[in-house]
């Protein structure tokens, strides 16, 4: 029993009880000159026509013997992909640090600019508070560089300028210096300091606002660079994971370390949903089925390719001749079972690697989103604003538009899988059991069709008709009890 069979039995209560596929057929090739590609692509093209393009590759594994030339060449490619992904991830990490530093600087600039805004306010109370804050800032960062000649040092020292600091904080212009009661020594020191402060206030505000704007633009470019490098890292990680060998195959006896051997595992799945309305029209299902709210059931055909070959180099690439086992299997699964099946197949190291990149970018940006939106919000809003719709009739059909707060389909699928894992797949009603039987009968027919047509197309011996037992529609336990559902 293959890996995919075990997973289906795990997610489907029906096949957990049945313990085998609904139908199974097998072909075996054993030729050092015959390769897997013609077999695979013939079956793939035929199934694409049968299932109208609803064919997926769900398993793609391989393993080479360590002593083969194919193994060493492949490992070189894997190392190159890993080095490239590590380099790009290092760049992502550095950019992220830069983004965090930019946000910190912009916050500092915003606090300082708030003092200028308050000082320019028409509200006298706010204007006075802002002016005093700027004076304090000037004394602490500019005037303090004079050392013993600074206002703070002269006020606290032994030079008897005890009124200098209070006088500086109380005046708003050079003219105000002459209006207050001060001795001439204090006035001569205060006037140039007030003039210097007013000039500093004007120029520092201009420079600060200019730098705040420039760093805001730079923040936007760094965020975009972070997302871009994250996208660049994903193909390298994906390629490195896809080129990695499956360790479980290395324990198989066919793979001898010193031999020149390769093992391949491929599985493709064709899916055909049951069209209830058409089945009712064709009188294959009772008419009441159209009124019922039922889960969607699918006829599934799985084709497993197990290949043991000898790699031989042809130009820049390898060709593989050897033994190929092709197994055709029929299943019937509802949407809940299919969702769990795909979730199980998606649990791989590749997903973990891609989640690592998302954790470094998407999750990190999500934590910093409030800060980033604060400095980029207006520009982002303009970019995301949809173009104006001039169609006068569009308002009539506005109910068809998705709500802004509506979750994307991916999130809905994730929520559905989470609920299925917690609560399990609910039991089937009588109608759903009947629908599964119908889907199972279609799957058996489709599976045999692919197997039989392939044999006929390649001149192999095949049956001119299907046996009665194979065409009989499977019956549920309820139908057997009442003697219903026979074909």
Q: What does this entry look like structurally?
A:
Strand 4 and strand 5 form a beta hairpin. The protein has 17 helices and five strands. It folds into two domains: 3-65 and 260-348 and 411-482, no CATH class; 85-238, no CATH class. It is elongated, with a radius of gyration of 37 Å. It has a five-stranded antiparallel beta sheet with strand order 1-5-4-3-2. By secondary structure, the chain is of the alpha+beta class. Helix content is 58%, strand content 15%. Mean pLDDT is 79; it is low at 378-386 and 390-407. Helix 4 crosses helix 5 (124-141). The protein has helices spanning 3-11, 13-18, 36-50, 69-119, 124-141, 151-156, 164-170, 174-179, 184-242, 276-281, 335-345, 349-367, 369-384, 409-423, 430-457, 468-471, 477-482; strands at residues 23-35, 55-64, 262-273, 297-314, 317-334.
Write down the secondary-structure element order.
Answer: HHEHEHHHHHHEHEEHHHHHHH
Shape: elongated
Segments where pLDDT lies below 50 for 5+ residues? Answer: 378-386, 390-407
Q: Provide a count of the helices.
A: 17
Strand content: 5-15%
Count of individual domains = 2
Number of strands: 5
Query: Main beta sheet: strand number and arrangement?
Result: 5 strands, antiparallel
The termini sit apart by: 30 Å
Radius of gyration: 37 Å
């Amino acid at each position: 029993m293959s890996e995919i069979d075990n997973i289906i039995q795990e997610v489907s209560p029906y096949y957990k009880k049945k313990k085998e596929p609904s139908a199974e057929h097998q072909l075996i090739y054993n030729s050092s000159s015959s390769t897997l590609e013609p077999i695979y692509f013939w079956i793939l093209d035929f199934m694409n026509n049968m299932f109208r393009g609803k064919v997926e590759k769900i398993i793609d594994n391989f393993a080479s013997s360590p002593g083969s030339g194919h193994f060493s060449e492949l490992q070189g490619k894997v190392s190159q992909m890993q080095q490239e992904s590590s380099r790009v991830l290092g760049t992502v990490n550095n950019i992220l640090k830069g983004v965090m530093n930019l946000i910190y600087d912009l916050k500092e600039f915003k606090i300082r600019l708030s003092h200028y805004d308050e000082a320019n306010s028409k509200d006298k109370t706010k204007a006075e508070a802002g002016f005093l804050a700027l004076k304090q800032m000037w004394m602490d960062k500019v005037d303090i560089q004079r050392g013993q000649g600074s206002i703070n040092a002269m006020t606290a020292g032994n030079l008897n300028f005890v009124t200098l600091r209070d006088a500086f904080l109380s005046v708003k212009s050079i003219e105000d210096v002459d209006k207050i009661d001060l001795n001439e020594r204090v006035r001569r020191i205060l006037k140039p300091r007030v003039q210097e402060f007013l000039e500093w206030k004007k120029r520092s505000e201009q420079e600060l606002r200019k730098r705040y704007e420039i760093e805001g633009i730079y923040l936007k470019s760094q965020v975009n660079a972070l997302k871009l490098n994250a996208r660049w890292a994903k193909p390298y990680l994906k390629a490195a994971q896809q080129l990695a060998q499956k360790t479980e195959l290395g324990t198989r006896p066919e793979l001898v370390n010193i031999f020149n051997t390769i093992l391949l595992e491929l599985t493709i799945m064709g899916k055909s949903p049951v069209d209830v309305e058409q089945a009712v029209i064709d009188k294959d299902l009772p008419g009441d089925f159209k009124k019922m709210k039922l889960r969607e059931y699918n006829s599934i055909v799985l084709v497993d390719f197990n290949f043991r070959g000898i790699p031989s180099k042809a130009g820049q690439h390898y060709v593989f001749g050897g033994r190929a086992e092709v197994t055709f299997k029929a299943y019937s699964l509802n949407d809940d079972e299919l969702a769990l099946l795909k979730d199980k197949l998606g649990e791989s190291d590749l997903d973990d690697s891609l989640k690592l990149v998302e954790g470094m970018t998407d999750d990190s940006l999500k934590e910093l989103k409030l800060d980033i939106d604060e400095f980029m919000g207006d520009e982002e809003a303009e970019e995301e604003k949809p173009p104006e719709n001039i169609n006068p009739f569009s308002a009539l059909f506005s109910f068809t538009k998705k709500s802004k707060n509506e979750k994307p389909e991916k999130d809905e699928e994730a929520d559905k899988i989470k609920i299925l894992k917690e609560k399990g797949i609910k039991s089937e009603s009588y109608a759903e059991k009947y629908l599964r039987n119908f889907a199972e009968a279609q799957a058996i027919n489709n599976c045999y069709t692919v197997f039989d047509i392939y044999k006929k197309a390649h001149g192999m011996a095949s049956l001119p008709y299907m046996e009665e037992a194979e065409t009989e529609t499977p019956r549920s336990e309820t139908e057997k009890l009442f003697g219903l559902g026979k074909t």
